[in-house]
Write a structure and sequence with these properties.
about 80 residues, alpha+beta, 2 helices
């Protein structure tokens, strides 16, 4: 997932648990994935991407679909559990 705040992603380590929150301008924030396990935090490549940072999460298939859908429409943030 691409998380909007790259600095937050740099604080994450494999094995951490996070909640993924979708932040839409017209609606209150909503939790898309609760207690997702961080599988990997890829090293950021200079000059690549459109902002934010990548994090690989281990979640059930249904949650993965919800994350992809939310990520296509809104900015995503994480909070440590």
């Amino acid at each position: 997932m691409r998380i909007a705040d790259a600095a937050t992603v740099r604080l994450l380590r494999p094995g951490d648990r996070v909640d993924v929150v979708a932040a839409e301008r017209a609606q209150p924030p909503r939790v898309v994935a609760a207690g997702a396990r961080v599988a990997e935090v890829p090293v950021a490549e200079q000059g690549v991407g459109d902002g934010g940072a990548l994090v690989v999460l281990s979640v059930p298939r249904e949650t993965a679909r919800a994350l992809v859908g939310a990520g296509a429409l809104t900015r995503l943030a994480v909070t440590l559990c």
